[in-house]
Amino acid sequence: MPENFKSRDKIIKEWINEIGRVVLANIDSQLEIEQKTTPNDLVTNMDKWIEKELVKNIRTVFPSDRILGEEGFGDSIEDMKGTVWFVDPIDGTLNFILQNENFALMLAVYEDGIAVQSYIYVVTLDRLYSAIKGEGVSCDGQQLPEPRDSALNEGMLATNSSIMIEEKYDHIRKIAKASLGLRLIGSAGLESVEVAKGSIVAYIATNLKPWDVAPGLLFMEELGLKATQFNNEPLNLLENNNIIFATKKAHQEIIKLLN
Ligand code: 2AM
Ligand code: CA
Question: Which atom of ligand 1 is nearest the CA belonging to 161?
Answer without folding.
Answer: 6
